[in-house]
Fold:
Amino acid sequence: MKRFVEGTDRGQSTLLPECLDDWMDENNPVRAIDAFVEALNLFELGFAGVEPEATGRPSYHPSVLLKLYIYGYLNRVQSSRRLEREAGRNFEVMWLLGRLVPDHKTVADFRKDNGPAIRKVCARFVELCREMGLLATASVAIDGSKFKAVNNRDKNFTRAKVERRRAQLEESVARYLSQLDTADRQPPSEALVAKTTRLKEKLSKLKDEMERLKGLKARMLAAPDQQISLTDPDSRSMATSGRGSGVVGYNVQVAVDTEHHLIVNHEVTNVGSDRAQLATLRRPFDRSAKLVDIVYLSIMAMANFSVG
Structure:
């Protein structure tokens, strides 16, 4: 096609790429990730698996999985299954991991088993930024953002939700009983027998649901905040900015340097309100001579926070 940019022939034999390092620009963020992780002492930070087992199948070194985790964080790739796919098709990840492709369960288990160590890595990154003079200003911006948990809204129960569900069940039971009374006054027939049988089955299921709801209500009332989540026990129902909307998840408080927009501290809580959260984030800064004043900017959304 004339006057258009043309691609190469898919049937052309070539080495792709001839050298993987040639595809990575000098300023590519993956080079920074690689250098940062390689400089860490993962054993001192508390990562499991730094020393290989004498027997059994060889495992991935924690540095490989940590690089993949950080890459996913910077590029908003959170799912372990998506990280697995990126490792098999993304040149940046291929370069970063040396063409290794950990499966999604390995990635998920790494995050689950090394939470405290990963938190120390975040602290080490903040220390590095201070050493480089990137956090020399005396103020940070703090805001909270709601993060959705794996817990479905239908599996989260509050006092109001339990009462609303109970009222719905009682209404359904009354409706089915009314239909059975109507059926009793009609001449018998095969269709009527089948309908009556279905109604009785529905009533039985509703009674079982009522008993289950009764047990959930007892558990809910026994909880300190009178709220329970069945899938993710620590998650809580929280209101969001949208009218009539809400999310079952966590409230993540983030402190960001106002000059370079680097995250300097974070705290995860299941309290829906941002009130009383400022003191929690302030404690680490009280011990620092460089960060002595914290400015609370509620209008700054977390979407505007960036790393680097």
In short: The longest strand covers residues 246-257. The radius of gyration is 28 Å.
